[in-house]
Amino acid sequence: MQAVVLPARAGYLWAKQGWLLFRSQPLAFFSWAMFISLLLMTASITPPVGPLVFIILMPAVTFMTMAACRKAASGQKMLLGMWFEPLKQKGLFKKLLAMGAIYVLICIVLGLIAFLPFMDELSQSVQTATTSNDFLPLLDAIRAPMIIFAVLYVLMASIFWYAPALAGFHNVTLLQALFFSGIACWRNKWAFIVYGLVWMSVFIGIDLVVGLLTLIGLSESAAATIQVPINIAAGSVLYCSFYPNYVSVFESQETKSD
Question: What does pLDDT average to over the chain?
Answer without folding.
Answer: 93
